[in-house]
Model the fold of this input.
Amino acid sequence: MAETQRRKVDGRRGPLVSVLVLNYNGKPFLKACLESLLKTTYPSFEIVLIDNHSTDDSVAFTEQNYSQVRILQTGSNSGYSRAYNIAFTSAKGKYFVLLNNDVEVVPDWLEHLVSAAEADPEIGALQPKLLSLQDKSYFEYAGASGGYMDLYGFPFLRGRVFSTIEKDEGQYNEAVQVFWTSGAAMFVRADALHHSGVLDEDFVHHMEEIDLCWRLHLAGYKLMVIPAAIVYHYAGATIQPNSFRKLYWNFRNSVFMLIKNFETKNLLRVLVVRYTLDIAALLWSFAKLDFKMAFAIVKAHGWLIWNLPLLARRRGETQSQRRVSDQSIMHLLYPGSILIAYFLKGRRTYSDLIG
Done:
């Protein structure tokens, strides 16, 4: 391990952190990612490369060049959630970091996260400030400076609302509570997963980290963004933001998440509005001849109807584990529709929404 990793922090090494780097055919990103991780100044961490059955030479490259990195091969490429759930069983740290392979970290990133988590045992998860690797003066699409959601399952960020990505001018440098932390760089208290459960593998792609964050809230934990910790992320390296697959997973999984996590008294009224919004989106996509979006919406809701027994089981599991009511987290949800605020009222930034 590099000499910088052996430096003492406040006279001690601190708790072990397992940095879990998910990889699938990511060799073009691995050198920069691993080199930046090895410059981390926090002295007590392990790096685990979770390889999701790559067909390139990612594993051989890592074995030959980074003997410090432990390699965990999942045996198949069956999604983000399954890969991390496998890693959770072998990771040794008090804290886990779920980290994409297309990131670069600054040397002191981990120190800020560990310090915040150690200071407050009620913290279940944290995220750093995520900036764009392509243009480091701008926030990054997938994480920015902490995530929120409206009542109807549409997420947004401090620094990114739909396609509006802000320049980082220090406007979101305050460490605050958030509704969700980005799966591109998510710091999790390992013990908290015993109360919330692990990632839901039925999500396959997208929003699985938001679902986990929601369950952490229901287990009584706090989630925060720590902007002093900085990570640069290559936006869209895995799935392009406007691809059919991303549209499908987002429509499907956002409703799945609502059904799992809301109390019954809130779920019924929320679903009425959400289905109205999705029907409006379907009609709009037909009017605009956007058949990609239209098919994504139809396919998403077809899956939800076909899998009602699965949804009922997952809802039952989540509701049986909850420790707090919806009321305790409602202050972290935008009270209206982010779609209406953004597209009809012109509120394009987080500051506009809360102002």
